[in-house]
Every structure is written in C-alpha cells, then in structure tokens.
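Deliverable D4.2, example record:
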Amino acid sequence: MQTIRTAKNLQTITPSMTLAITAKSKQLRAEGKDVIGFGAGEPDFDTPQPIKQAGIDAINANFTRYTEVNGTMALRKLICKKLKNENNLEYEPKNIIVNSGAKHSLYLSLCAILNPGDEVIIPVPYWVSYPEMVKIAGGVPVYVATTAESGFKLTKENLSKSRTEKTKAIMLNSPSNPTGSVYTKEELQVVAKFAVDNNLFVISDEIYESIMYDDAKHISIAQLGEDIKKNTILINGLSKTYAMTGWRIGYTAAEEDIIKAMSSIQGHTVSHPASIAQKAAEAAFTLDKSVVHQMLEEYDKRRQYMMKYIDEEIPDLSYIMPQGAFYLYVDVSKTFGKTYNGITINGALDFASTLLENYLVAVIPGEGFGTKEYVRISYATSLENIQTGLKRIKDFLNQ
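Output generated by the structure prediction step:
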C-alpha cells in the first residue's frame, strides 16, 4: 500500500475547474483549433499605459529591492485615500496590508482568523477557491443554499440555519462571481446585524466593485456602522478594475490585530508583494477614472448583446441578470437528459465538456461553483468572439 506523503488537509482539495477548462482550451488551440473562450475571469483589455510605464520606471530606477512587509507606505496611504473617497471608510496605513493579489489577501485573512475546525459560511453558488482556501487554512466550509429568486444571496433565514457554535466567519462577495448579483444596502444590513449579534467576521470580497451596471450601487458592508466595520475584513485589488491580473496586487483593510496577524504570515512566506508591481499600483490609484469607465462601457455592450441573444435565439437557456462583474450565470438544466453523439447531458460538466469538444466553446461548469444546473459565461472577451460563441452554442443546442 502506497503511503500518502502530502498533508492530510490537502486530500480534500479539488483543482480549480476554471483553470482545468482553460487548460483544455489552450490544448485545443495549440492543436490549431479555433476555440472561443468564455471561461476567462480576467479583463481582455491591456493594462493602461501609465501603469505599465510606472512599472518600467521602477525597474529603471532600480526599485527592485525588499519593501515593507505590508507594502510601501506610499501605496498604503493611497489605498486609505481611495477607501475614504470612494467608500466613505476611514482607515489608517496600520489597517492596510498589500498582498500578492486579492486571492492571496483572502487566503491570508482566513489563516489569520481560523483555528482547526472553525466553520466559514459560504453561500452557494460561490467562487471556486473559497471552500478550498478555507480547507487549506484548517477550517470547514459550510455551504448555504440560496435561490435564484433571491439573486443567490444570503438571508436571515439561511444564515440562522447554517450557524453553529463553531461558526467563525461569513464569506461575502458583492458584486458576485459567478452570478453578477449585487447586495442592496438593506440586504447587507441583514448580514451585518447577524454577524455583529453572533460575533462573526465578515470577509467581504469586493474585487468587482468598479464593474457595475444600470442603477446598481456598490456598498461595502463596513460602511454600515462601527460595529460591523470592526468585524469586517475588506478584500480588494487592482486585477479587475485596471486589467492588472498578472501584476498580482491585492489589499486588505481590517482592524489592526487582523493586519498584524496577516503581516506575520506574509513576512514569513512571500516577504512582501513585488516592489515593481507596487509602483505600478501607485500609478493605478492616481489614474484618471475615464480609462475604467471606457472598459465598463464595453463590458455593458457585451452584456446587453449576450442577454438579448439568449432571450431571442436560445429559449432553452435562462440566466440571472448580472448587475456587476463580467459573467452571465446561465441555467442549462433544460438540456439535461438529452443526448449528443451518444453522450447524455446529466449536468453542467457534461454540457461544458461536450460543447468544448464538439463546438470549441469553453464555458465554466457550475459544479465548480456548487451548482450543477448552471454554467458561467464570461463576456470579458471581444464582441466578435461573443457573437461567434453564442451562435455555436445555439447550433449545439439545435443538435
């Protein structure tokens, strides 16, 4: 019998389905296939030139040595300014830590607060990495069923049913990946009251806050009073807003004891975020917002086209209207039980795999988000790709 040599808590970790589909897409492209990728969770725009230039200037100025563990003071001050001006939140640099991407921020925050066996409430559907991060940090993900009618959001009822004596935190994502749902102030007040009454942390992932549509408005749960602010670990970053996914800059705002704990872990693991990327981040925070607005306008055009096409041309599909982010969460359950070339579609994974293999369109199956009835379709790609990809999906369903 072979001895398992890796850590026990890693035996339950599942690979990212997002990355798996992306890898398969790349393989098909390498074979010369014309794959339309609806799987990407990153902007298809280039990083704005002033940000790139700041990185180049940092290299030329030899700003390539260690920085403070929590990030440079200049960058942390800019983050405080941003939180004050855009979110009406008062933080000092001691309340901020800059991390190597918002994913890193999330993981460090969990490591900072969880003891073995502590539970974290995670609404379903969820971003694929939330449960795995909780498990790696020694915690236990507690999945909360939500409904399409509620926009897949947490309510007082499902929170109450999920809480136990071991509950330590609530994972909150608004705007949401994968659904694009946005919590209203009233909905956030319910979560905030529950968290404060039960002395729970709220890990508030706000990475998509700048990508909002129609009349939707981003509200950080930390804005709702000093009590909930003390319990909030606010996570954000530059990847989505400024098309800086590869630069790996995220940040966390929280009470000083949380930041100190995260700083200890960061100092012993990655030392600090990349110095060059930090200089680029400074440029991002001082960039004219018109660049962001231009990206948002393009996302909205694609969103509108995608919704209209599905409404008019693909009646077997339905979706949750996205108020933020750049995804459509599409219900494919009407295809279940049907067959294609001898393959029976019994879930979103079957749908996604068959679609990719036969029609060269990559979508992310909902099993990765905790729901087998849905696939996530990203419109962070060109309108031309969207037109071609949706036509292929229509042809697939007609077969």
